[in-house]
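Much of the work behind modern protein science is quiet bookkeeping, done one molecule at a time. The protein below has been through that process, and both of its lines are reproduced in full.
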Amino acid sequence: MHDTSSEGAPSQAGTGTAVMTDRTVDGRGTVVLLRVVAVLALLQTLVQGLLAGMLLNGDLDSIDPHGHNAYAFEFLVFLQVVAAVLLWRRNRWLTWPLKATIGILAATFAQTGLGLNSALAAHVTLGVALCAMETALVLRAFTLRVAAPARS
């Protein structure tokens, strides 16, 4: 049995080789929404890292902005989930954005809990992981190919 592309032609990969299918998604607006919100959330993680670094350097005045920014980040991650749900509703086969954004949302709530409980080592580690997860989401979101609008 040969791996096939989305058009049904045999792929150039050998049997048993992982092949990424070249599928396009419907809904340019929902893809753009996911990309924009994910980029904003990624920028928020970078600001959080900056504020955390300032705090660890002894700038105690950065604790309030760090806390406020955390809630802004949570809101953006929630919007990511909404965008992923909208995208999934138009493309039921496309589940990775929804799974990824729900995972990031769960990690974000855990991150807030760790921060409020002053579990510094775990809080910093999960913060770095959240930055990596957001980076991966942004990169993956920009690989989505949007279907051309139907011409009438």
